[in-house]
Design brief:
The protein is of the alpha/beta class. It is built from 19 helices and 7 strands.
Length: 494
């Protein structure tokens, strides 16, 4: 179902009689008025997402080294250099880890605003933009009110919020691209859908599988030629990036994440132990738990749409992996599933309205969207997702530890080489040459910044200078900062 707003914007301006006979006046093309509520909704979520990300950053609460890694990568792109991420190792080209050249799009912004905040704000904008896309698409096939409800449910969904609350990650680009692909499929715009699917392979190597799945769905929707071409393209790009491009840049000449798959191969157990592979998809129970929440988030109606098939590749590589971090609902791993599921919900509402089952038509027309909105809001509260606390003053309150970490960060000068563990990484990556602790064995760093309060197994070293000097034999380090189990040490000899 389409409306007049789907047509190209009309130039309704009067002729410009002051600059040539009958020459039409060129006017700035504004979005149609029907899109304004959805753009406003996206702006609201942009503000909320920025607040969530920036509070975590300013409170030194990064969950991993990801933001720091991507800061180093984008910084090199901004200076027209190869993306060498020293956090991963001396001279380590990050294209040998994951294939995400799309991040070069952030280089101009980082060149003007050289700060990790630039990446976090860009991620918030990309996620918020997908909210507007989902909301406007739903409105085109239902009503404005229902469209806004779908947009709200999507913006509050646990998959998106977990990603916003995590560090910056390349999947931020995949989310709005998938929203655009699914939008055009829902609106039966086959060629634009295929067009927006093409750059997904530049987001991350596994997106090649997702692109192939999009092609298969287009074939099922009787768009055989374009679907077949897209399937071949996605599969080919997956093979090229995993077996040629990434190993070319990887220092060991391999794709490191292959070892996390059964039998070190994407097809090993498919042919040698298919029953074991099927069992691995549902065991342990955390996988079923995640799957249940994914289905429930759209009030179960998304299962009515063939578009849910596009989510299968992501679920397959996650659930067959030996890395248990992929199985659950934490981190950013479910973000790319959210636009698929919510636009599958929109497609299901449309399909159910033309179906022959009266009860399903009634459920889709009257209850499914309100139910999905209520479920998203309820989960936001019960799971204590960040949006439930974004209006609380306590969320933004500082504390003694934040002040201490600000002083610790200030104790490390700009432009030096420094080794660190996670706590200060996001704050140091943009202004120093940063390594993981013990990561540079070729020359000792000028500074070392260590949080000894957590993350050590079996226990943190008690002699911190001795520990650091043991990592770099023949050196002498002096402690220049020591508060609340956080240390900054300076190289004085070696």
């Amino acid at each position: 179902m389409t409306t007049d707003t789907d047509a190209p914007y009309a130039d309704i301006g009067a002729a410009d009689t002051g600059s040539g006979a009958g020459t039409p006046r060129r006017r700035l093309r504004m979005p149609p008025r029907t899109a304004v509520p959805h753009l406003v909704l996206g702006l609201v979520f942009l503000i909320g997402y920025c607040a969530i990300s920036l509070v975590r950053y300013t409170h030194f609460a990064s969950m991993s080294w990801d933001t720091a890694i991507f800061v180093q990568e984008v910084r090199d792109y901004a200076h027209l250099q190869a993306p060498v991420v020293t956090i991963k190792g001396v001279g380590y080209n990050i294209l040998g880890d994951h294939f995400s050249p799309v991040l070069a799009l952030l280089a101009p912004f980082y060149r003007v605003f050289p700060s990790p905040v630039t990446l976090l704000a860009a991620q918030a904008a990309l996620f918020a933009g997908s909210v507007s896309i989902v909301s406007d698409t739903a409105a085109k096939v239902t009503t404005r009110a229902k469209g806004l409800c779908v947009g709200i449910a999507y913006g509050l969904s646990w998959g998106v919020q977990r990603a916003v609350d995590f560090d910056f990650h390349e999947i931020a680009f995949g989310v709005p691209l998938l929203a655009l692909v699914l939008r055009n499929i829902v609106l039966r715009r086959w060629y634009p859908a295929a067009f927006w699917a093409l750059p997904l392979v530049l987001v991350k190597e596994d997106m090649g599988l997702t692109v192939a799945a999009i092609g298969i769905v287009l074939v099922l929707l009787r768009q055989r030629m374009i679907g077949a071409l897209l399937t071949v393209y996605g599969a080919a790009m997956l093979l090229i990036t995993v077996y040629l491009v990434i190993p070319h840049f990887n220092p060991t000449g391999h794709y490191d994440y292959m070892s996390k798959l059964p039998g070190d191969s994407p097809t090993h157990e498919l042919f040698t132990a298919p029953l074991g592979l099927l069992h691995s998809l549902v065991s342990p129970d955390v996988k079923l738990h995640t799957l249940g929440y994914l289905i429930a988030i759209t009030a179960f109606l998304a299962l009515r749409s063939p578009l849910v098939l596009i989510a299968l590749p992501t679920l397959l590589w996650r659930f067959t992996s030996s890395n248990d971090a992929y199985w659950g609902m934490d981190w950013h791993y479910s973000a790319v599933l959210m636009p698929i599921l919510f636009l599958a919900l929109v497609d299901a509402v449309q399909r159910s309205g033309a179906g022959s089952w009266e009860w399903l038509r009634a459920y889709a027309d009257r209850a499914a969207i309100p139910a999905a909105t209520g479920i998203a809001a309820a989960l936001c509260i019960t799971m204590n997702l960040p949006a439930s606390n974004v209006l609380s003053s306590s969320t933004y309150a500082s504390n003694d530890r934040v002040g201490m970490l600000q002083r610790a960060s200030a104790a490390v000068p700009d432009g030096v080489t420094v080794e660190s563990n996670v706590t200060l990484m996001a704050h140091l990556a943009g202004r120093t040459q940063l390594y993981w602790i013990g990561g540079d064995k070729t020359s000792p760093p000028q500074y070392v910044a260590l949080d000894m309060s957590y993350g050590w197994s079996p226990s943190a070293p008690t002699d911190v200078p001795g520990y650091v000097e043991g990592l770099h034999p023949g050196t002498v380090y002096q402690t220049v900062f020591d508060e609340q189990q956080f240390y900054v040490l300076k190289l004085v000899s070696g």
